[in-house]
Amino acid sequence: APVENVRITTNSLPPGEALLSWKTPPDKGGGKTLGFDVFWRHKGGHWKLLPRYLIPLAGKPGEEVKLYLHDLGLRPGEIIDLKIVPVDNAGNRGPEKEVEVALSDTPSEFPLDFEEPPLPTDKESSTLVKDDEMEIFIIDPFDKVDPITGTIIPKHPSGYLLSNHIFSAEKGLIQLYGAKNEFVHFQIVIKGRLEKAKIDVDFPGPIKTKLYEFAYVQKGKKYWPDPLIPIEEGFFSIPAKSGKVFIPEQKYHALIAEIYVPHEASSGWKRGELSLSWRNKIFKIPILLRIWNFTLPDKLSFIPEMNAYGRVDPRKGYAYYRLAHYHRTCLNRLPYNWAGTPAFAPRWNGKGFDWSSWDRYVSPLLDGSAFADLPRKNQPVDVFYLP
């Protein structure tokens, strides 16, 4: 039978997209409706088959299916023609249903309520970031710094340590941007040899901060920062004592400042401060954080899947899953080996499967309760391997 009553909506969709839905028609020949062929064209153009991954499978007769029209590079507000043809499991094709689709005309640019940053006063601009015993630099969080030579990967123009996209030594200022429900980071590089120095990043109100220091891995005669270790009570040393690799000749040490902007934060410029104290010296660098007037959704718009193996086991707790969830990724442990032997699965009793133990360990991941106190609280894992 033909497809009838096609509903079209563009509410909240990006420009040039639309969402269509219709009910699966019955098959009158004794088989079942299996799927659809869907064709589209610009007004006055030639019909083209819609990419197959966009076309839904049929449901049961009367069950609704949805087609998300995107990825075609169409113009905001453009009107196109769509033709839907039901197909049964014997390959028979039903009558064509032609509809006109007006695509979303949402603006392709989102207006940000931008205003110029409130720069520090002259007194604040003279903030020291070095003395005879140490120097402090602020750089991108993805840079890698050699702990002995200070060489940075990737290479940057000369002067990068003193002036870059987040830091100005001349102004004595760190400047950052982020949405609500977003993490913002910067890297602190310290040159010198210190014993039990104290570091802190502070913001007023609901904004939350954490500090980490790099531990190091060795390859040949080279050392590189890799794992991040939370800094206990803000104290660190150079040479670093975190991790398993100690570097007696270490001269440079890298730390990561993490700033989380909660859902309830207000937009606009917020003032914070980085402070480092050692012996009787205190170094302070003001931080300006611009919070944009929108919020990142709790549900991920794409899945950064952290594939994992034997070390991760839901029966031993959810710490790995929570760490991934906190940082807007999704951990997915493969629970079987190449021979097909499952590491954990429902029990077979000779007649059927007993799911009770499996459910007890896995359900908090699938209903989101394992993440009830995290920024994206109660969002379940996006993917999970079957036994």
Describe this structure in words.
The chain is mainly beta. Helix content is 6%, strand content 39%. It is built from 3 helices and 24 strands. The chain has helices at 122-125, 319-326, 356-366; strands at residues 7-9, 18-23, 33-42, 48-49, 64-69, 79-88, 97-102, 134-139, 144-145, 152-153, 167-168, 173-180, 182-192, 197-202, 208-219, 222-230, 235-236, 252-261, 268-278, 281-295, 305-308, 330-333, 347-348, 353-354. The strands form 7 sheets. A 6-stranded mixed β-sheet has the order 11-12-20-19-14-17, with no helix packed on it. Strand 3 (33-42) and strand 4 form a beta hairpin. It is globular. Mean pLDDT is 91; it is low at 122-128.
Q: Give me the number of helical elements.
A: 3
Strand order, main sheet: write it out: 11-12-20-19-14-17
What percentage of the residues does DSSP assign to strands (E)? Answer: 35-45%
Mean pLDDT: 91
Which secondary-structure class do the elements indicate? mainly beta
Gyration radius, rounded: 28 Å
Low-pLDDT ranges:
122-128
Number of strands: 24
**Helix fraction bin:** under 10%
- Summarize the helix and strand pattern as letters: EEEEEEEHEEEEEEEEEEEEEEHEEEH
Tertiary shape: globular
End-to-end span in angstroms? 40 Å
Key words describing this protein structure:
387 residues, 24 strands, 39% strand, 6% helix, mainly beta
